Amino acid sequence: MDPYSLVTRNTVEVVTDEELSALLKKPGRKVYAGYEPSGEVHLGHLVTVNKLLDLKKVGFEIVVLLADLHAFLNRKGTMEEVRTLAEYNRKCFEGLGLVDVTYVLGSDLQLSPEYELLMLKISQEVTLNRATRSMDEVGRQMEHPTVSQMVYPIMQITDIATLGVDAAVGGIDQRKIHMLAREYLPGHGYPTPVCLHTPILNGLDGKKMSSSQKNYISVAEDEESIRKKMNKAYCPKEIEENPVLQMLQYHLFPRFNEITLHRPEKFGGDLTFTSYEALSEAYGSGAIHPADLKRAAGEYMIELLRPVREYLESHP
Ligand SMILES: Nc1ncnc2c1ncn2[C@@H]1O[C@H](COP(=O)(O)OP(=O)(O)OP(=O)(O)O)[C@@H](O)[C@H]1O
Ligand SMILES: N[C@@H](Cc1ccc(O)cc1)C(=O)O
Asked: Which ranges belong to the motif 'KMSKS' region (predicted)?
């Protein structure tokens, strides 16, 4: 696959295509994604990790921001709690193959006088209304936002400048914060960041996968638990918004060249697919039973996540 196709596959939006094409020719290009430390790194987060791995393959330098202060500002835990989780999350990311990349702990970056001054300058330009709206899909309990949740997006913009990255990766929920960054950073002498947005994955119940909803598969999940969860997963006849098909599209086909569904001869025997398009078409036509799809996806997922479990066991 050519570099442009690889870095844009499985994205919902690239802002902008022209800027990305130009960036692919720039030496020393650098991209980042930030994560609020959370109890479990799940398959939703893995969508952005996959994108960072694609970008690494085409020569980007990768920065992973473990955004402990952001999680604190967003009322996800005490500073001590989120710092401990940041350590654990880092190991999960390493187990997923994000090695030879730079890990930055948010609070190590964000408390310098230079950082604070830039953050305050940007805060003076962004209206409360836009800061609030940018947090629509990111903030917790936004019916009663705190001042810290207004500081949050301004700091995310300041991260982009301070880390010196050319591009930012995030789920499409990060879009409004990224658009503010594109609008305000040039005025402070920083380049406009190229933004790559990935889709939001549904959880096993068909709603957004989230650690607070317990509808996720963690990247550290053990085999039996993956089997049980897959067995119970919501898997409608429809192709759209189907969490099991999303798993195949965003995680399994990018990692395995072909996917085989094992079935007894009396149910038609094994079926092998070399592309997500062929598989989803077959499923949409009714040629595949949901139970067979769920079982196969579960077994491949166990294979895909095996290195994470092994890495975590050897790095307690
Ligand atoms: N279900 C999901 N599908 C795809 N990407 C996701 C999903 N959940 C989070 N992300 C992405 O992961 C990155 C880090 O998000 P973050 O750690 O804040 O997760 P979150 O939305 O708070 O999830 P959670 O509700 O599980 O804590 C962001 O770029 C976000 O877009
Ligand atoms: N806003 C991201 C986390 C993040 C924090 C700071 C950043 O610079 C980047 C990303 C989220 O929703 O989880």
From this structure: 208-212
The identity of residue 277, as a single letter, is E
User: For residue 257, is pLDDT > 90?
Assistant: no
Ligand 2 pocket (Cβ < 6 Å) reads 34-36, 65, 67, 70, 138, 156, 159, 174
Question: What secondary structure letter does DSSP report for 250?
Answer: I
Ligand 1 neighbours (beta carbon < 6 A)? 35-36, 38, 44-45, 47-48, 170-171, 173-174, 200-201, 208-212
Structure tokens at 84: 């401990």
Assigned token pair, 300: 């491949």
Ligand nearest to the CA of 168: 2
* Structure token pair of residue 272: 């092998």
What does the H/E/C string look like for 150-202? HHHHHHHHHHHHHHCCCEEEEEHHHHHHHHHHHHHCHHHCCCCCEEEEECCCE
Strand bridging mode 13-15 / 102-105 = unpaired
- pLDDT per residue as tens digits for the range 138-185: 999 999 999 999 999 999 999 999 999 999 999 999 999 999 999 999
Domains observed in the chain:
3-198 (3.40.50.620), 211-314 (1.10.240.10)
Residue 81: exposed, middle, or buried by beta-carbon count in 10 A (0-12, 13-18, 19+)? middle
Residues 6+ apart with CB under 8 A from 60: 29, 30, 31, 167
From atom 29 of ligand 1, which residue's Cα is the shortest distance away? 170
- Listed in sequence order, the DSSP H helices in the chain are 3-8, 17-23, 43-57, 68-73, 79-95, 106-109, 113-123, 128-134, 148-163, 175-184, 223-232, 243-247, 253-255, 276-284, 290-314
